[in-house]
Amino acid sequence: MAVDIFKGDSMVPWKLFNKWPNCKSTLVSMFWSIIHIYRGENVCADKLANFGVASKTYTWWNNLPNFIFEDHVRDKLSLPNFRFSA
To answer: Is 81:43 a contact under the CB 8 Å cutoff?
Structure first.
């Protein structure tokens, strides 16, 4: 959905609608790209996104959060990640 929003193919969720123009004006001064990566390939981003959805407060870390430390090490060492479902 985020990729579609940035491409202009989807509407911004109403909770973010008022902040979207500020975001777009900030992005004009940056070189950036957005692509889709399946969550199984980016476990750290998936866990951080889930944290952001569940969190009701602004959070800033100066160091790697404990809940993604192990996944970050696995990624850094190019070790595989597997998702199993029943």
So the answer is: yes
